[in-house]
Amino acid sequence: MKLIEPSVEYIPQGEDLVGIYQQIEKCARTCYKSEDKITEDSAKKMVDNLIKNHHTAMLEHGTVYLNVSLPKKAWNKDIVDRYYHNPYSKVNNTFDDYDYHYFITTNFRVIVENGWFSALQSQCEPTKEHEKRYTFKFITSRAIANELVRHRVFSFAQESSRYCNYSKDKFGNEVSFIIPSWLLGKVNECSYNTMVEDINFLDQLNYNKTLRAKASWYTSAFLDAERCYLEALSAGSTPQEARDVLPLSTKTELCMTGFQSDWERLLDIRYNESTGRVHPDMKILMGKLVEIIKANNLWNMK
Question: What is the pLDDT of residues 198-216, one digit of tens each?
Fold first, then answer.
């Protein structure tokens, strides 16, 4: 069994078509934890396979920025109306004496499913006129991930316990659990054998009897869940069958991509608590997100 802290990672995207493919691959491989298969030329092959197999939800993680200029004398609004009326795209515009300038932010799924590949000729680096999209990866508990995926304006790619087999070497032959908020800062990340009681872990609690008793119940539940999970696999169960015994504290990885305005709304709800008190674990995770946004100067926080 392994106990780990929650964390947040910013995943920046390269600006050209290769960068879009690589961004999609990074997020898609989170689902099966196959990041070890990423190579210099693996991204396009994966994207082509996703399209071939109609797994186009993953394409949403690839952000496409377009800069389209149309002369006023020969204005064809149909070229940009398709994005105005597309719920997954945002359009800002400016104009001068001769041209209309449209700054379009969309995603690669929109391009692929509508067959708008010619639009890629107008692909550009994001400007101040574009609404930006950002991707973050959260390492958190299943419980908190369940709350995050309720924000359906985002695109998601989540570690799949249906297919990930935690008895394998790539997972250290153990199940990982998130240290809950009430234990954060009181214990360190640790890993220990399911058959051995971890006295050192409880000793980190400085002999606080109440906290030690509480932690003992939780870790006992984690150990039992891991033991049942591993034994079920050994008895011939598939990962999607064995996972039924795993608790909500089981670690998961979740990539989320959305417009800046979506992230601001999420933080307003889940960090500023504009609609009511949030779970303490969520508050801590969103605090880490705020730190990442500030550290990378992604946008000015309100």
Answer: 556 677 776 678 888 888 8
